[in-house]
Task: structure prediction
Amino acid sequence: MRYLEDFAVGQTYESATKQVSSDEIKAYAREFDPQPFHLDEVAAGHSIFGGLAASGWHTASLTMGLLVRGDLDPAGGFIGAGVDELRWPGPVRPGDELHLVCEVLETRESRSRPTHGLMRVRVNTLNQRNETVQTFVATLLVQRKPR
Amino acid sequence: MRYLEDFAVGQTYESATKQVSSDEIKAYAREFDPQPFHLDEVAAGHSIFGGLAASGWHTASLTMGLLVRGDLDPAGGFIGAGVDELRWPGPVRPGDELHLVCEVLETRESRSRPTHGLMRVRVNTLNQRNETVQTFVATLLVQRKPR
Result:
């Protein structure tokens, strides 16, 4: 478990990998993003994606799973104060294996909560060819080391 | 179905409502965000949330479901070029009923794709007391009216 003081700008953290199946892409889409290009190979083939692709919010959800199970491990858990610059530069396809590369951009004390600080982290999600399929900057609320 | 030319700055769109159950909060969390405050009432009571709360990415996913099933209905579907300023100003609790209020902020032609344009939309997710539980600005790729 890492307190705010254990993080420093420029540190990087990687994650385990997570393979995404066609069934998972469709199951997420049925519940949360029922658009043809996330649900059906044939329809997806005729869409702007040119084939079945995961919902961007599915990729974000899978990324959260990799973060929570990874070794960044902020004290108090992952409490998101906000996310900026969320982009999906490439599609996630059935069978793709995702992993994360995270870089600490900034740490600072919190004015309103003396027990906590804020940390900005760039979270990049890459596939098995090291192509970036998603990127965002998260601002996390992280506990400070107890005195 | 609305083409880029059918949207104008300042237009607002609302959505249907979606109630969120404790079981849904926990099921999403087990798969994507397995942190105690999303999984277990007792642990959540001792956390910064003071009770079970939905993962922010779950709220984002539910928001996408309301968007896709709503009447904004952009031609070509919801193709996200990016999301900015994603914030969760309040928690989503079991039993909460969510709905959206969306406002068109900007529409413009795409330089790289003459058949498409880009639209920026503020998407606010509110609960049954009209408290904002999530807000973001989406940039969508929208088809232009065929000549």
